Amino acid sequence: MGSSVSFFCGPSDNKKLQDYATSLGLYLVSTRINEEVSLDPSLGPYCYLSLIPKSMLHPFGNPPVRVSSVLDPALNFMRAYFQKPYLVLGDIQWTNDDSTLAKQTLPYYKKIVKWIRKEWGKNGDIYIGNEAKSLITEGAEMVNFLPS
Fold first, then answer.
1. CA 141, CA 30: separation in Å to the nearest integer?
2. Is 0.85 topped by the overall pTM?
3. How far apart are alpha carbons 120 and 6 in whole angstroms?
4. Strand ranges (DSSP E) for 23-148?
5. What confidence tens digit (pLDDT) does each residue in 43-99 have?
6. How far apart are CA 8 and CA 136, in angstroms?
7. How far apart, in whole angstroms, are the C-alpha atoms of residue 74 and residue 58?
8. What are the Cα distances from residue 59, in Å, to 49, 62, 85, 115, 146?
C-alpha cells in the first residue's frame, strides 16, 4: 500500500522541493535508464527520487531500459507544474511493496513530507506551494491532469 502526499506547485515551488530532495542525497531519475529527466515537468512529470545514482539502478525489459521503485530504493515522483491557465497536481508516493526497499525509503519520505507541511499551506488533503497560491489568486485553475 504505502503512503502519498499531493500538492500544487508553481515553478519556483517545484524547484525548492527538488532542491530539498537532492540536499537529502536523493537523485532525480527518469523511468528509463537511457533518458534524462526534463527540466520542464510538463514534458515528463513522472520520475523517481532515488536513493542511488542512475549508474547503480537495475534496469529491466527488452532491451533493459526501464527502472522501477520495485527494484531499487526510490520514491515515485509525479512532479506538479503550471501550464497556463492550469496548475497540475503532483505527488510523492512511498510504497511498501518490498519491505527491504520500504525501510530504506521511508526516512526520506518522512523528511520530505515534514518539509512540505512546514513550507506550504494545506487545502483539504492537498498542499499548495507559495507560488501556486499566488497563481491561484491570479486565476489559475487547479486540475488533476491537463484537459484534453
1. 28
2. yes
3. 11
4. 27-29, 46-50, 74-78, 81-83, 86-88, 90-94, 121-123, 126-128, 141-143
5. 989 999 999 999 999 999 999 999 999 999 999 999 999 999 999 999 999 999 999
6. 10
7. 12
8. 15, 10, 37, 30, 30
